[in-house]
């Protein structure tokens, strides 16, 4: 998994009724775009994440084209 600043990190809900959590990558702390990432959630709080298999990176270039 590789990300750059501005990409969205989507953590999919694990149980029925749990919504996906979307955050924005504000800092890439690993080398060459690898985790961990500092992310900011819509409510403004930030966290350091090392995404697991339930996560997906939405690259900012692809979102602009869609």
UniProtKB/TrEMBL annotation:
A Pfam family of this chain: DUF1918
Gene3D superfamilies tied to this protein: Domain of unknown function DUF1918 (2.30.30.440)
Chain residue ranges for the region called Disordered: 43-66
InterPro entries per UniProt: DUF1918
Residue spans of biased composition, Basic and acidic residues class: 56-66
Domain DUF1918: 1-57
Name by which UniProt lists this protein: DUF1918 domain-containing protein
